[in-house]
Write a structure and sequence with these properties.
heterotrimer; A alpha/beta; B mainly alpha; C alpha+beta; A: alpha/beta; 6-stranded mixed β-sheet; 8 helices; C: alpha+beta; elongated
């Protein structure tokens, strides 16, 4: 079993956190087949922070993200998003939350096949009740931001994996969410597409967007402010990635000193 | 580095500073920390080995940057041979691996702590590499080099995760 | 041998893996088989009962009468009647028997009855066949069966004729009389009790002495004679020749057996009209529902076929497994459907109890059995062939990768839907994804609505049925109403199964987009309303199309082409009811679907 003590992963910046979880637990199955996907997790995410959660397959990181986004209900514990208790909300309130405060990016993109990129990005705005014109305007702006303005009229089948994921990111931003939750965003992408997504996340971070990314790709994790390691449903380590020099690059690349 | 300089000279005879400029362009940020005088040291060695010939450009004598270097036939042969080589600088996990084994065997330190510390360092390096990569405009040779560095770091990090799993298992058994 | 074992194991495993779909398919095919069985049984109902009664009672070719109720002639020409027994072409006769009109009271009912005097010994022509008890004796009478059924009396009970008590010796049937219950009044019917009772009396047989003693001054005796001809087919000509050459009111009036048969089977004929409409409708609806289900499953099958191929199955093996699955389901369903149809057929096909009603009972002939089983197996084969052929043609990779056909894109609809409120936005887009299924929905609802409208036309047409108000309801309308009720119930039941199948299939197909839309911020209510709207629009179209469809259908099937259009509010109620039913049937599985966790559905779709 896990010997390291659970550490409360605190944000160092002042002010109330955007997202917060207390003693979060999610169990599947019963009796002998009981699986603790998420085991007594405490978490805080500050405004504007990029947090990466890393871990091997099956460690529960995706489940954690789904809990934070209201797509799953916790077995026990509290989740607070901008002060509201997700675990106590009904489905209707959760839906409302999902279209105002949370943007989700899935590993499998989950775009709607029969809608163009622009129509896919418009959809959350339409669901939130915005007028078609406002939704279209916002979609155009977002597609420009992710660098796909020239592909706005393409169907997902005509886009590459990296482009599809960028459309999905644009869709997640449609309603200007408080926090963007990304579940293995580069899981299905090659390294060139990964770089595109990396760049995008970097830009979002620079613009002040709060990001929580679940990944087993260390390249993505390295872009975060804070990196949490997860195993068997619990947090085991926390690293703050700051600063660093560029002086070592030469020897890293194999140039003798 | 020697073969690199030889290969760069194969294009045309060049001054030392021209070679330095081309290296810098190819390496980008990776080459920033390179010693300015290193290239002249290398050129001197090559001259001694007879792979490079040096001429003084008429004009201003006794200034090192006025020397023009050319490839000798021996040098050309060396370049051709080097281009055809497929030896690869292999990965070098042996030292770190032995570090962990020794620490565990002699109870000198907790292997897990060593792995964690190394992971953190590599993550920082990866972060820096990616920062530099994103600052490069797309498609440059320097960007490609940084990609290579990042991917190797990623591979090393994956191995460190495997090390962590292994030594955590060992720890629970002992 | 091992091959067959492998195939059956794979087939069983496949069926067990998706029990719900297998059960649905079984229900659909069973419903189709049941309706087909019913339809074929109804189709086979003929006026044959009369022939059986005629044979059993040695029924007459000609019935000649003088006098009788309403004749209003004091003198009867008995001699002319007896002269008929010696006419050319006559081979046998029985009678003349006396008859008179009496008032009968039994079981609290009061009715008119025609009492005919008979001998205890069997007559050579027209000896009524006993269904209960024994033949006439002094002080004992025999009632005609339909009359006895309406009164609720049987052998051993007491009846009162003109105030005198008689015991009921037995109950019998005859082919010689048109005065069997129910009697239909075609025109000039007066609904007052006394007149009606005179026009619609029941038939009673008594000893000749008893019958003569019941005659009164107001109701004198008449006489009836039964004749058998050398050429029974010429009876009609014989009767009309005689009647036209003897127009005097005191002369005997002749009726041929063809005449009597026509009148007797009129009840059955009317039923037949109704039943023919129904059998077509039910058959169509059954086929439509199976098409929906099998068609919906075929897309699923393509992927399954791909999986089988990927683990090394040849197209032949794949086809064999699919065929085995479908055959198993089809055989079970055919058996269930035949049983249900066989049980339900007697409810509808027993003709008036006046005739030996054996035509309805063995309605499931070997031909019907064979046809139903053949149809069920045919469905199984077609359901196998299409994906099997597709499997043989497409590559394994394509079959695996293409979980189903990609959804259809309609730019205009997407643009239009953006302006609508969220539930309609979702509903319109969902319906437009699968235009073929939407069209199938419309077609299926149209068939159902046509059926209901046609039934309403029948109801409207029979609104002018007459009710005897003598305390005895006209059993004809009662029976027809029962028939209509059973048919309407069957139609609505099949329509309900159909609607449930379509809705279930739609909800299953839209699980992924529904979960995704919820993840993007649509509330469960919006998603449920959207799905319901997606079904309601085709339902509305289908229901509206069903109005002219049903009227056309009724017009084509009804032999005389007359159509009474149902009142407008019935039609409006049908349309609204259909839409409401479809919405309700969709809303329930849709609502249940929204209770699942979103991430579960989204991740399952990747598997």
């Amino acid at each position: 079993m896990n010997n390291t003590p659970e550490r409360r992963v605190m944000s160092e910046t002042g002010g109330s956190p955007v997202l917060r979880a207390d003693r979060l637990r999610k169990e599947f199955g019963k009796g002998d087949a009981l699986v603790r996907a998420v085991d007594e997790i405490d978490l805080e995410v500050a405004q504007g922070e990029t947090l990466a959660v890393m871990g091997p397959s099956g460690c529960g990181k995706s489940t954690l993200l789904h809990l934070l986004g209201g797509l799953e209900r916790p077995t026990a514990g509290q989740i607070l998003l901008a002060g509201s208790r997700l675990d106590q909300m009904g489905e209707r309130a959760l839906a409302r939350l999902r279209r105002t405060a949370v943007g989700f990016v899935f590993q499998a993109f989950h775009l709607i096949d029969e809608l163009t990129a622009r129509e896919n990005v418009e959809l959350p705005a339409l669901l939130a009740g915005r007028s078609p014109r406002a939704a279209r305007h916002r979609a155009a702006g977002l597609l420009e931001q992710v660098g796909l303005a020239d592909r706005a009229g393409f169907l997902p089948a005509a886009l590459s994996g990296g482009q599809r994921q960028r459309v999905a990111i644009a869709r997640a931003l449609a309603n200007d969410p408080l926090v963007v939750l990304a579940d293995e965003p580069t899981g299905n992408l090659d390294s060139a597409a990964t770089l595109d997504v990396l760049r995008l996340f970097d830009e979002l971070h620079a613009a002040g967007q709060t990001l929580v990314i679940v990944t087993h790709d260390s390249r993505i994790a390295a872009t975060a402010d804070r990196l949490i390691s997860m195993r068997d449903g619990a947090f085991v380590d926390e690293t703050r990635l700051t600063g660093g020099t560029r002086g070592n690059l030469g020897s890293l690349a194999g140039l003798e000193g | 580095m020697q073969e690199v300089v030889l290969a760069l000279l194969a294009k045309e005879p060049s001054h030392g500073y021209q070679l330095r400029a081309r290296l810098k362009e190819a390496l980008g940020p990776v080459g920033e920390a390179m010693n300015a005088g290193q290239i002249y040291v290398t050129l001197g060695r090559l001259e001694k080995a007879g792979l490079v010939a040096c001429e003084l450009e008429p004009g201003l004598p006794d200034r090192p940057d006025r020397k023009v270097y050319t490839l000798t036939p021996a040098g050309q042969q060396r370049v051709a041979a080097w281009l055809a080589e497929v030896t690869w600088p292999g990965p070098a996990p042996a030292e770190f691996h032995l570090k962990l084994v020794a620490a565990a065997a002699g109870r000198l330190a907790d292997p897990l702590a060593i792995v964690d510390a190394q992971r953190r360092e590599l993550l920082r390096l990866l972060r820096d590499t990616q920062r530099a990569a994103m600052d490069e405009p797309g498609g440059t040779p320097a960007g490609l080099l940084l990609e290579g560095v990042a991917l190797r770091l990623q591979a090393d990090l994956r191995w460190l995760e495997a090390c962590e799993r292994h030594w955590a298992g060992q720890g629970s058994r002992s | 041998m091992g091959h067959i074992l492998l195939i059956s194991r794979l087939a069983v495993r496949d069926l067990r893996h998706r029990p719900a779909q297998a059960v649905l398919l079984l229900l659909a095919i069973a419903a189709a088989a049941a309706m087909l069985t019913l339809g074929l049984a109804l189709h086979g109902v003929t006026s044959q009962p009369y022939q059986q009664t005629r044979a059993a009672t040695n029924g007459p070719d000609i019935v000649a009468q003088v006098g009788g109720p309403g004749a209003g002639v004091p003198a009867v020409d008995l001699g002319a009647l007896e002269a008929l027994t010696r006419a050319s072409g006559v081979t046998a006769h029985s009678g003349p028997y006396p008859f008179t009109f009496v008032t009968l009271q039994a079981n609290g009912h009061k009715a008119g009855a025609q009492v005919e005097g008979r001998d205890p010994a069997p007559a050579p022509v027209d000896q009524p066949s006993l269904a209960q008890g024994t033949w006439v004796r002094p002080g004992e009478v025999v009632l005609e069966r339909s009359f006895a059924d309406e009164l609720g009396v049987g052998a051993g009970d007491q009846v009162t004729l003109n105030g005198r008590q008689f015991r009921v010796a037995g109950v019998a049937v005859t082919a010689a009389s048109t005065l069997t219950y129910p009697h239909i009044c075609y025109s000039g019917c007066d609904l007052s009790t006394a007149q009606l009772a005179r026009k619609v009396p029941g038939v009673v047989w008594a000893m000749q002495t008893d019958a003569r003693s019941l005659a009164t001054a107001a109701e004198p005796l008449g006489y009836t004679l039964n004749l058998k001809l050398a050429d029974p087919a010429a009876a009609d000509a014989f009767a009309s020749d005689y009647n036209s050459s003897h127009p005097s009111p005191s002369a005997p009036l002749l009726q041929s057996w063809q005449d009597i048969s026509f009148n007797a089977s009129s009840l059955v004929r009317n039923e037949q009209k109704v039943l023919q409409v129904a059998s077509w409708l039910l058959g169509l609806l059954a086929v439509a529902s199976v098409a929906v289900l099998v068609g919906g499953r075929m897309a699923d099958q393509t992927r399954r076929v791909g999986l089988l191929k990927a683990v090394g199955g040849t197209p032949g093996l794949v086809a064999a497994v699919l065929l085995a699955e479908h055959l198993a389901v089809a055989v079970a369903a055919a058996a269930a459907g035949l049983l249900a149809g066989w049980l339900a057929a007697p409810l509808l096909t027993s003709p008036g109890t006046a005739l030996l009603g054996t035509a309805g009972a063995p309605a499931v002939t070997p031909a019907t059995f064979g046809l139903v089983v053949a149809v069920a197996l045919g469905i199984a084969t077609v359901a196998t062939l299409v994906p099997a052929i597709r499997a043989a043609r497409t590559s394994t990779v394509a079959a695996l990768a293409d979980a189903a056909r990609p959804p259809h894109r309609s730019q205009r609809l997407i643009k239009v839907s953006a302006r609508l409120p969220v539930p309609l936005l979702l509903g319109l887009r969902l319906a437009a994804r699968r235009p073929r299924r939407t069209l199938l929905n419309v077609a299926s609802i149209t068939v159902t609505a046509s059926g209901i409208v046609a039934v309403l036309c029948v109801h409207a047409g029979y609104g002018q049925s007459l009710y005897a108000s003598s305390g005895l309801a006209n059993p004809q309308t009662g029976k027809l109403n029962r028939v209509l009720l059973v048919l309407t119930v069957a139609l609505v039941a099949l329509a309900a199964v159909n609607a449930i199948l379509i809705s279930w299939a739609t909800v299953l197909d839209t699980r992924h987009p529904s979960a995704l839309t919820r993840a993007l911020g649509a509330t469960p209510e919006q998603v449920t309303a959207g799905l319901a709207a997606a079904q309601a629009l085709p339902a509305l179209a289908g229901a509206l199309l069903g109005i002219p469809g049903g009227i056309e259908l009724f017009a084509t099937v009804s032999k005389d082409g007359t159509v009474t259009a149902p009142p407008a509010w019935w039609l409006i109620a049908t349309v609204l009811g259909t839409v409401a039913a479809v919405v309700a049937v969709t809303a329930v599985p849709a609502w249940l679907g929204t209770r699942h966790s979103i991430s579960g559905v989204l991740q399952a779709e990747l598997a």
